[in-house]
Specification:
Layout (H helix, E strand, L loop, with lengths): L4 H13 L11 H7 L4 H14 L2 E4 L3 E4 L4 H25 L2 H20 L2 H19 L4 H15 L9 H22 L3 H23 L9
Antiparallel strand pairs: 1-2
Helix pairs in contact: 1-3, 4-6, 4-7, 4-9, 5-6, 5-8, 6-7, 8-9
Protein name: GntR family transcriptional regulator
Keywords: DNA-binding, Transcription, Transcription regulation
GO molecular function: DNA binding; DNA-binding transcription factor activity
């Protein structure tokens, strides 16, 4: 890992999104201060920032832990995700800036490259960034924090999606990349209905794959 406050912030985000840090895992403040060459104050400032963004939870007298994924949080995630993604898509069409469209296209190029190289970590992070940019395009201060919190769990729940284990999962990964391309075309064309339709297609694809993570097939017992 690199040293410095910015590096700590980016590294913790990456480790949480890619499930290298487990939900509910406690962070060792002393270890991080030594590892990044920082004093306690900047480390705690990073913790506060990440807690505000929904990545960490600061628990009095217990320390800092990765935001958990409980039955309640998963239920709420599946309940509201399509609604928030659809609202984000509509507003992205209405409000996007050329610089944001350029960033979206560049992110999609990296996502496509990761599909070809089967880089699971890059796939998860570039997919997350793609949808973050759509949130930035929406430019709504009420909606964006909700989207950001959703994307954290979406990335964590869906990490198996980026490690396809059979032909059907490979096909779904290719379809997800095609959806991204179609999002770009529809947003650029200011076609709000096309974006919303894509949101629900993309969500259904994600939902089916996230079920694999939540309810995997049981191991066969040897008798």
């Amino acid at each position: 890992m690199r040293s410095g406050k910015a590096a700590l912030y980016e590294d913790l985000k990456r480790l949480i999104l890619t499930m290298e840090l487990d939900p509910d895992e406690l962070l060792d403040e002393a270890s991080l201060t030594a590892q990044y060459g920082l004093s306690r104050t900047p480390v705690r400032e990073v913790f506060q920032r990440l807690a505000g963004e929904g990545y960490l939870e600061i628990v009095e007298k217990r320390g800092v832990r990765v935001i958990p994924m409980s039955h309640s949080s998963l239920r709420n995630f599946f309940l509201v995700a399509p609604m928030i993604y659809a609202a984000t898509g509509r507003l992205a069409v209405q409000n996007y800036k050329p610089s944001q469209m350029k960033a979206l296209k560049e992110t999609q190029k990296r996502f496509r490259k990761a599909v070809q190289t089967r880089d699971a970590e890059a796939l998860a992070l570039e997919n997350n960034r793609f949808h973050e940019i759509m949130g930035e395009m929406a430019a709504n201060p009420y909606l964006q924090p909700s989207l950001g919190r959703l994307l954290i769990d979406h990335c964590r729940i869906g990490h198996t999606f980026f490690r396809p284990q059979n032909a059907d999962m490979e096909r779904r990964l290719q379809l997800a990349a095609e959806h991204h391309d179609a999002f770009i075309v529809a947003i650029e064309a200011r076609d709000e209905q096309a974006v919303v339709d894509l949101v629900f297609e993309h969500w259904e694809l994600s939902r089916e794959n996230m079920e694999i993570f939540i309810a995997p097939q049981g191991l066969k017992a040897d008798f």
